[in-house]
Amino acid sequence: MQTEIVWLAPAATLVLAYLLGSIPFGVILTRLAGAGDLRQIGSGNIGATNVLRTGRKGLAAATLLLDLGKGFAAVALATRFDRDAIGLPALAALAVFFGHCYPVWLGFKGGKGVATLMGVVLALHWPSALVYAAAWLGLLGLVRISSLAGMTAAASAPVSVALFGRFDLVLLLLALTLVVLWKHRGNVDRLLAGTEPRIGRKSDASG
Q1: Which segments of the chain are extended strands (E)?
Q2: pLDDT category, 114, cuts 50, 70, 90?
């Protein structure tokens, strides 16, 4: 009986966080707005950058906030039940992130994780989230290449927590960053070839 109680919280955390992460807000919002199936638009990705290709800036902003929010909510709720350890929050971070990137409802074909990872970082260590946001928005404004800005922001997470002395978070965030980079492998190929389009161009179909 005691063993069942011990495993109940981690199991519930994994399931609930994964289900929260797997909610495809971009797909839902674009359908509700009559903008069609997001998976048939642009790159087919379910994130905010592809929502922007529908011409609905409000929907793109809402998708970004909701994808970020689910990452934050899952980890913040887990932290309330495990304030003195990183165990449950780490499980929640992994589950909500993988839920977003590999949602069961969409045949495990989800987003690239940049916004959801920022939500996770915000819940785990808010100063590093400020670095994340600065890297993301700063580079996006400078070069207007969504993939490059997103990957740079993600890569800042394990580095910034290490610099702030939160070494307990380094391996977790490094693992999630590597998944973000893997999900962007097509973008990396285009960046190296010099063919990755910038935000605002009609040919932009890579995010």
Answers
A1: none
A2: very high
Residue 190 pLDDT grade (very low, low, confident, very high; cuts 50, 70, 90): very high
Q: What pTM does this model have?
A: 0.90
Q: How many domains does the chain have?
A: 1
Whether residue 200 is contained in a domain is answered as no
Q: Tell me, yes or no, whether 99 lies in a domain.
A: yes
CB contact set of 57 (below 8 Å; sequence gap of 6+): none
User: What is the rounded CA–CA span in Å between residue 120 and residue 125?
Assistant: 9
Q: What is the residue type of 28?
A: I
- Does residue 176 sit within a domain? yes
Domain of residue 110: give its range: 2-193
Burial grade of 66 (CB within 10 A; 0-12, 13-18, 19 or more)? buried
Identify whether the C-beta of residue 76 lies closer than 8 Å to the C-beta of residue 123.
Answer: yes
